[in-house]
Amino acid sequence: MTFNTELWNGAAPLGPTEPRSLRFNSGDSAHLSRTPTSAGNRKRWSWAGWVKRSKLGSSQPIFSGVQDGNNATVLSFNSSDYIEFYNYTSGYSGRMITSAQYRDPSAWYHIVLIWYSDNGTADVQIRLYVNGIRVTNFGTSSNPSSANSIVNSTNGHYIGADVGFNNQYSNQYLADVHFIDGSALDPTSFGEFDATTGVWNPIEFTGTHNPNYTSSYSAFFSYSNVDAGTVDDAFDGSTSTEFEFNSSGGNGVFAPPGGIPYTTSVEVYTARTITMNVSLNGGANVTYGGGWTTIASGSGTLNTLTFSNGNAGNQRFGAIRVDGTILTSGTVTGTNGVQLRCSDNSGR
Predict the structure, then answer these.
(1) CB burial class (10 A; 0-12, 13-18, 19+) of residue 66?
(2) Running DSSP on this structure, what letter comes out for residue 328?
(3) Residue 244 three-state SS
(4) Domain CATH code at residue 249
(5) Are residues 254 and 225 in the same domain?
(6) Do residues 175 and 221 both lie within one domain?
(7) Cβ-based neighbour number of residue 22 at 10 Å
(8) Same domain, yes or no, for 181 and 248?
(9) Is residue 346 part of a domain?
(10) How confident is the prediction along the chain (348 residues), in pLDDT tens digits per residue?
(11) Are 100 and 135 in contact, with CB atoms under 8 Å apart?
């Protein structure tokens, strides 16, 4: 395994992102390994890194966590040059194989994988991004439904190999690798599009690899005239439990301190079809009901959501979703996050 000084995507180095990479050669069984002393969050984590291929037409593991020959979490290029990700625990509990092939050995691919298995919205439980764009076309796709990954367990973790599972090694270059324990971070944490060329370039990561926080969204919701349920039901990460307002004018205001930034959308969920009104930041009312309803598109900050009953009859509010992630109360503690900078001979 050697360092390479090639620049990727024509981008100048930004902050700690230096034009260096690690080269992996399968003939040398080259790989990096680590076995955590304690388990991290096995339902929510993010992996990001720049990858350049040096061999096509064979399985090339990028990142893995391996318990044994029947249990592993693996991100790889498969033997047909598709990106494949799966969590296998004596059977698949979450799997994706892209419809697109990635066969350019001169290209640097920035890959971001988000594992968020206990998110109440099935289609965001696993998310894959390549060069800043979410991949949505898959030849194979199944959701994990709250499964624990082998990644973030106390078993072996590997970069460039899946030792003990398929026992395969890679031929590729990797650079600026991040593992975030406990947060589902999208690509904008690691890169940005050049305003002139449209090329996806690396940026300095300014977040934390091991978040430690408690989110109590229900504490920021004031309300009156409740008919059934509790406000905690609206922030438990599930759409199957709801907080019900009654027909005599029940209303509520969600006002998180400091607001919640969004870059794509704010949505509200209820299974009931009797409509109710909700207003973002004191703006015009939006009528919602019968599933997810988009309250705002684009970017901005959610400072307040004000709910008011638009029609006679009880109405339920089940969840708020920001940029595809359901707001969920609870404690998140990261322990195993790490960055491999490749700017010198060590990671951190």
Answers:
(1) buried
(2) B
(3) strand
(4) 2.60.120.260
(5) yes
(6) no
(7) 21
(8) no
(9) no
(10) 333 333 333 223 333 334 578 999 999 999 999 999 999 999 999 999 999 999 999 999 999 999 999 999 999 999 999 999 999 998 999 999 999 999 999 999 999 999 998 876 788 899 999 999 999 999 999 999 889 999 999 999 999 999 999 999 999 999 999 999 988 888 989 999 999 999 999 999 988 898 776 678 888 888 776 777 778 888 887 787 888 766 555 578 899 888 888 888 899 988 777 677 888 998 888 888 778 889 999 888 999 998 876 555 566 788 898 888 888 887 777 889 999 876 554 443
(11) yes
Q: pTM of the entire structure?
A: 0.72
**Which positions ≥6 away from 133 have C-beta within 8 Å?**
none
Query: Domain count of the chain?
Result: 2
Rounded Cα distance, 201 and 348, in Å = 21
Whether residue 20 lies inside any domain: the answer is yes
Enclosing domain of residue 22: 2-211+334-340
Residues in the chain: 348
Q: What is the DSSP letter of 80?
A: T
